[in-house]
């Protein structure tokens, strides 16, 4: 059995693996796709101390760093069920935690770190995939500066959409917010702030139907005005899709405490509601989903797991 078994091979999982392995304890990492969201990222300019890199380079570096240590890396393996340990009346575990894979295999461990990340909800309209990373963006903190002085749209009028619009308004020439409903779901204070900005326009009852481009990059989008049923076109250089970040926790429902949004509830040491089970990164309730934050949380969860192991008898 493992002492620490990590599920997820993004920045959080990789960082947890390095920290756990450096304690000299038996460490395993199961990942559906090693690298996680980083593998889909074009340019990374906010990973402090590395001025600029790209996703594939960072994934290769993560893998090299993890494999520098004695870590069992099980790539292309998906977890489908967590079987928590039973505990006796004083909280001592009476058996090991098990992670069941899609292949049917069951991995046993004294502690588990969940780092299965999240995925951006997509619009599912023509052009979105084609121009992903070529004008279609999901992270204003990451890609906002690439659109300096240009016209962009933000899709979604919830808190993340309106926050993105306010953030981008300071960088770009103009921001158009498109909201499907006839009201904005964002907090009133954010809506007021966005409305006070001269270079932000908010359009409600707008159903985005297509991302348009010149074959190389985005040049606009089409939407239907739901009030009049008229088709409209806006010329733009970029589109920020802000209609939700979905945590990869479908496989954990019912076994562990999740927030309303489906995120794993963690405390500052990465503890979850289950003894011996820790979580880190975008899959958790941690605010702000970024590489550097996921890595910090992954190392914290590994140290939390180590703390737990030295205090808990081997079942
Ligand atoms: P993830 O990176 O999502 O990794 C999750 C891991 O879990 C993956 O290995 C996945 O395959 C695995 N997994 C999921 N489910 C299972 C399962 N059931 N069984 C086994 N494995 C599973 N952040 C920045 O700081 N700077 C940027 O420039 C930046 N740009 C971005 C650009 C794009 C296009 C995207 C999508 C995100 C960007 N981000 C950026 C955000 C950043 O990538 C994430 O915050 C970060 O990757 C989160 O790390 P994580 O380890 O928590 O999760």
From TrEMBL:
<comment type="similarity">
    <text>Belongs to the class-II pyridine nucleotide-disulfide oxidoreductase family.</text>
</comment>
<comment type="function">
    <text>Serves to protect the cell against DNA damage by alkyl hydroperoxides. It can use either NADH or NADPH as electron donor for direct reduction of redox dyes or of alkyl hydroperoxides when combined with the AhpC protein.</text>
</comment>
<keyword id="KW-0560">Oxidoreductase</keyword>
<keyword id="KW-0285">Flavoprotein</keyword>
<keyword id="KW-0274">FAD</keyword>
<comment type="subunit">
    <text>Homodimer.</text>
</comment>
<keyword id="KW-0676">Redox-active center</keyword>
<protein>
    <recommendedName>
        <fullName>Alkyl hydroperoxide reductase subunit F</fullName>
    </recommendedName>
</protein>
<feature type="domain" description="FAD/NAD(P)-binding">
    <location>
        <begin position="2"/>
        <end position="298"/>
    </location>
</feature>
<keyword id="KW-0520">NAD</keyword>
<keyword id="KW-1015">Disulfide bond</keyword>
């Amino acid at each position: 059995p493992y002492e620490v078994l990590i599920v997820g091979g993004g920045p959080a999982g990789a960082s947890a693996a390095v920290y756990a392995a450096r304690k000299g304890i038996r460490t395993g990492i199961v990942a559906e796709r090693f690298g996680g969201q980083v593998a889909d990222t074009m340019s990374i300019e906010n990973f402090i101390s590395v001025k600029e890199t790209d996703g594939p380079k960072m994934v290769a570096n993560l893998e090299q760093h993890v494999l520098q240590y004695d870590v069992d890396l099980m790539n292309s393996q998906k977890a489908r069920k967590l079987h928590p340990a039973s505990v006796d009346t004083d909280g001592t575990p009476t058996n090991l935690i098990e992670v069941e894979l899609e292949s049917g295999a069951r991995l046993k461990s004294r502690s588990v770190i969940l780092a299965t990340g999240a995925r951006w909800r997509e619009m599912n309209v023509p052009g979105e995939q084609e121009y992903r990373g070529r004008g279609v963006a999901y992270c204003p903190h990451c890609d906002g500066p690439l659109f300096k002085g240009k016209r962009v749209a933000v899709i979604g009028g919830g808190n993340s959409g309106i926050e993105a619009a306010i953030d981008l308004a300071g960088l770009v020439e103009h921001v158009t917010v498109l909201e499907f409903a006839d009201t904005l779901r964002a907090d009133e204070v954010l809506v007021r702030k966005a409305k006070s900005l001269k270079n932000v326009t908010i359009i409600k009852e707008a159903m985005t139907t297509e991302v348009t481009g010149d074959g190389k990059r985005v040049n606009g989008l089409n939407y239907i005005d739901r009030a009049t049923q008229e088709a409209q076109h806006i010329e733009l250089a970029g589109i920020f899709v802000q209609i939700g970040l979905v945590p990869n926790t479908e496989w954990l429902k019912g076994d562990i405490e999740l927030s309303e949004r489906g995120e794993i509830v963690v405390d500052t040491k990465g503890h979850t509601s289950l003894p011996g089970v820790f979580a880190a990164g975008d899959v958790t309730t941690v605010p702000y989903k970024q590489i550097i934050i996921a890595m910090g949380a992954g190392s914290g969860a590994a140290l939390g797991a180590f703390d737990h192991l030295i205090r808990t008898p081997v079942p």
